[in-house]
């Protein structure tokens, strides 16, 4: 965090100055480690074993917050008799189909009922929930047939509040993590037992009624074949300790860019609509009613999905959207499968994807297995790149590595490349949504130079020109574009769309055009329009709430008048859990919101994340649905049962509980289970340039004996497009380098500031050598392990140039999010510079032969 988020890290240091303990868990000793009370080095890719060990410690030593988990989690829920855990099935859960590499989650449900997931894969049981047919292709398995929610059964799930029933979630959790002992953590992660126990003691001593512990993770934690389960493991631990919904608790994702949170809220993701509404799939006879029936939860605020969807459709299509035409629901695109970044690359290679827009992305060096990205772009008809500089994704056709090796010839590449210069954030108005869901408005400081334009300008005017060209068309296929409400005011010499007008549309308005102030006002009848339901209120009273800048010294510690947090300017989600079941703060020291019996309402320092007049003793009437079906002790209002899920009966494709699996490429066998890798990790169709490596005890695994991990530097940003062209930053970090321990340097003959060649089954790169004690060797599985650190900001263009670390990576993905595994992979390292041209291909080929690699290696379920 000190390295990658130095501005935010000042608050960690302020907390430390006031007595907080800072623990840093990272394979490398970094700037954060230097300022932490305790640095814990561990083997990259073993996070679930480490967190599972802490969970086991909490359960074994009864350090959990019992009153909290009994009241607010699904710990008392009793599971079906036919559920089988990894302990029963040698490392997999019941329902695994090895042929389709997928789970049927039927046996994961509670006894007595089934629940719909609040997020994740929610479409699995579409046919059962709608009694309709489906035309989704098998290619859509990961999206449409994942571990989504099933139809809600009659009645309530069975509960045992004594937590003693052998099939209750609490007891299942205890059995699942019983083998995650300090001894096993040491063997798997390389963390000495005394250091591990110190972590356990610090975390548990700082959790409970009077104290809370926060987890802050770098988004690299998601970049694993078990990425989602890494985060789930943290949420299991934080729920057991009572650290969710309370001040000083929670789990914070440290985003790699100022508005990554914003780009998932109003999504750049292929499978979501704004506000985390699922994108419809290509089901037969799917109308709006069927969509809502399939996707909405029976209880909780997702029960109001129709209001959110209809208001979104009204924002998109305005007067053209009416009850008579299902509010233009048919105009929405339909998913026919997973259309993630990497599957799009495979579609390019297959000649299916003909054109590609790159807005602020640099896959030629920034994506895993960068070679495949370039080969895919070389098979396009056209490519549009919008960026500040001539990044590698705009120039690969003339100077990319494949030109040097002879795999591509510039004169043979038929892709027509258009480069359009982009405006920087200082050159446009707009908002950033940061890690804590805070929308902060930034005002234009200067006009963009030359032909540079904002993304808003580009999208608006491209849409305007397309609509003009289609004017008068009688083709039904053109109606969704022609009927769009595309009437934004513009200003200035360049006709820049008014960003505040877009914010006002996102906020929403009523039938008279008045700004809405809360998502509670959204209606299912078409009388409200709202571009993103969770952002409703950001333009309340016609005022840009995101632009507020009241100094902290002029308000209380919650600072509710600094910018605006979604939803409803609420700073801590699920804050009903900060009070006990009777509505009283767990402790005065940690008071946030509480029930005021005299006023008959929830009050406190933050905006209550609960219906304001719902009393703690409220029991919903029989047959209630949506928010009305939640009781006064159901703080997790987006969940179908109002509870925090220690165990996930629906919504994940790879299991109801986090389990340790080795990374796709690993020098070690899985000591916990017979199952080596995540059995439902997403593997893309075989390609000669995406070979996987043998792992564990498999023959040939010793050819790649070291674990590598990629990371960021303070001086550079992401794939380098914003920093390698800046002379001062290029001077601060002038060359691509690798970090190795003195012991590994001696073992491999690597000289400090000299050159090293790093090889995987996908590619070879060279880097300057940084010999440093920051990369401490670990003892794993009884042998010495060395790890190699690789910053990933480089490429051949700009002032500071070098090979791209991502050349080394494979495409084995998390099955929920389709994100690549970049933080743990196996390599070999040798002294000297890498070979050039065809000789580089020959070296990689020689390694594959030595390791016995073919198209089947590493592809087992």
UniProtKB/TrEMBL annotation:
Its cofactor is [4Fe-4S] cluster. Gene3D superfamilies: 2.40.40.20, 3.40.50.740, Dimethylsulfoxide Reductase, domain 2. It comes from the Bacteria. InterPro entries: Asp_de-COase-like_dom_sf, Formate_DH_Act, MoPterin_dinucl-bd_dom, Mopterin_OxRdtase. Transmembrane segments: none annotated. GO terms for cellular component: cell envelope. The keyword tRNA-binding does not apply. One of its GO terms (molecular function) is 4 iron, 4 sulfur cluster binding. Belongs to the prokaryotic molybdopterin-containing oxidoreductase family. PANTHER family: FORMATE DEHYDROGENASE-O MAJOR SUBUNIT, TUNGSTEN-CONTAINING FORMYLMETHANOFURAN DEHYDROGENASE 2 SUBUNIT B. This is Formate dehydrogenase. It comes from Streptomyces corchorusii.
């Amino acid at each position: 965090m000190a390295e990658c988020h130095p501005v935010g890290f000042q608050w960690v240091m302020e907390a430390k100055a006031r007595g907080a303990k800072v623990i840093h868990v990272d394979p490398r000793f970094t700037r954060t480690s230097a300022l932490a009370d305790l640095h814990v080095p561990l083997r990259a890719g073993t996070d679930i074993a480490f967190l599972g060990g802490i969970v086991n410690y909490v359960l074994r030593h009864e350090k959990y917050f019992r009153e909290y988990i009994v009241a607010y989690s699904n710990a008392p829920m009793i599971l079906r008799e036919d559920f089988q855990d990894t302990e029963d099935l040698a490392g997999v859960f019941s329902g695994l189909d090895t042929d389709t590499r997928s789970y049927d989650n039927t046996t994961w449900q509670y006894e007595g009922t089934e629940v719909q997931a609040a997020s994740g894969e929610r479409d699995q049981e579409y046919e059962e929930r709608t009694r309709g047919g489906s035309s989704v292709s098998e290619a859509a398995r990961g999206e449409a047939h994942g571990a989504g929610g099933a139809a809600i059964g009659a009645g309530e799930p069975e509960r045992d509040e004594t937590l003693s029933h052998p099939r209750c979630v609490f007891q299942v959790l205890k059995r699942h993590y019983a083998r995650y002992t300090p001894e096993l953590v040491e063997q798997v992660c390389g963390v000495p037992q005394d250091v591990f126990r110190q972590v356990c003691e610090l975390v548990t001593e700082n959790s409970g009624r009077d104290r809370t512990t926060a987890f802050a993770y770098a988004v690299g934690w998601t970049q694993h074949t078990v990425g989602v389960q890494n985060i789930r493991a943290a949420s299991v631990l934080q729920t057991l300790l009572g650290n969710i919904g309370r001040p000083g608790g929670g789990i914070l994702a440290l985003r790699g860019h100022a508005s990554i949170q914003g780009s998932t809220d109003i999504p750049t993701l292929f499978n979501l609509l704004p506000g985390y509404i699922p994108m419809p799939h290509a089901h037969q006879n799917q109308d709006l009613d069927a969509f809502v029936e399939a996707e909405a939860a029976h209880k909780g605020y997702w029960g109001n999905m129709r209001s959110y969807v209809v208001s979104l459709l009204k924002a998109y299509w305005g007067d053209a959207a009416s009850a008579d035409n299902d509010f233009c629901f048919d105009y929405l695109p339909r998913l026919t499968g997973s259309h993630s970044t990497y599957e799009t690359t495979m579609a390019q290679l297959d000649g299916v994807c003909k054109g590609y827009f790159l807005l602020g992305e640099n896959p030629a060096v920034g994506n895993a297995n960068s070679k495949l990205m370039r080969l895919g772009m070389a098979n396009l008809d056209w490519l549009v790149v919008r960026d500040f500089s001539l990044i590698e994704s705009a120039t690969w056709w003339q100077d990319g590595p494949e030109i040097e090796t002879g795999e591509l010839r510039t004169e043979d590449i038929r892709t027509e490349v258009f480069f359009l210069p982009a405006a920087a954030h200082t050159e446009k108005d707009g908002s950033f949504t940061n890690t804590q869901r805070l929308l902060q408005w930034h005002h234009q400081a200067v006009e963009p130079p030359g032909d540079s334009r904002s993304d808003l300008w580009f999208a608006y005017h491209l849409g305007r020109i397309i609509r003009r060209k289609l004017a008068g068309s009688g083709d039904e296929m053109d109606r969704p574009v022609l009927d769009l409400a595309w009437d934004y005011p513009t200003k200035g010499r360049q006709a820049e769309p008014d960003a505040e007008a877009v914010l006002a549309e996102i906020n929403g308005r009523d039938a008279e055009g008045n700004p809405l102030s809360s998502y509670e006002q959204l209606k299912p009848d078409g009388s409200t329009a709202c571009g993103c339901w969770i952002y409703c209120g950001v333009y309340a009273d016609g005022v840009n709430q995101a632009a507020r800048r009241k100094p902290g010294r002029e308000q209380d510690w919650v600072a509710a008048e600094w910018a605006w947090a979604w939803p409803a300017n609420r700073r801590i989600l699920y804050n009903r859990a900060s009070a006990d079941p009777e509505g009283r703060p767990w402790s005065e020291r940690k008071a946030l919101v509480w029930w005021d019996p005299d006023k008959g309402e929830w009050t406190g320092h933050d905006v209550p994340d609960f219906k304001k007049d719902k009393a703690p003793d409220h029991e919903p009437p029989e047959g209630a649905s949506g928010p009305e079906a939640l009781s006064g002790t159901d703080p997790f209002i987006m969940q179908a049962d109002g509870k925090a899920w220690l165990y996930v009966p629906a919504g994940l494709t790879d299991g109801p509980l986090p389990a340790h699996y080795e990374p796709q490429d690993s020098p070690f066998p899985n000591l916990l289970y017979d199952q080596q890798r995540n059995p439902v990790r997403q593997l893309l169709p075989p390609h000669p340039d995406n070979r996987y490596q043998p792992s564990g005890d498999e023959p040939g695994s010793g050819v790649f004996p070291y674990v590598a991990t990629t990371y960021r530097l303070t001086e550079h940003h992401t794939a380098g497009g914003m920093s390698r062209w800046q002379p001062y930053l290029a001077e601060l970090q002038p060359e691509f380098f690798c970090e190795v321990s003195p012991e590994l340097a001696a073992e491999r003959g690597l000289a400090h500031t000299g050159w090293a060649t790093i090889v995987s089954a996908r590619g070879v790169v060279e880097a300057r050598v940084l010999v440093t004690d920051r990369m401490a060797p670990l003892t794993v599985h009884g042998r010495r392990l060395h790890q190699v650190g690789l910053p990933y900001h480089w490429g051949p263009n700009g002032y500071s140039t070098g090979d791209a670390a991502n050349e080394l990576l494979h495409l084995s993905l998390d099955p929920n999010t389709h994100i690549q595994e970049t933080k743990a992979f196996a390599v070999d390292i040798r002294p000297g510079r890498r070979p050039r041209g065809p000789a580089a291909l020959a070296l990689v080929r020689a390694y594959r032969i030595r390791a016995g690699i073919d198209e089947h290696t590493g592809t087992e379920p």
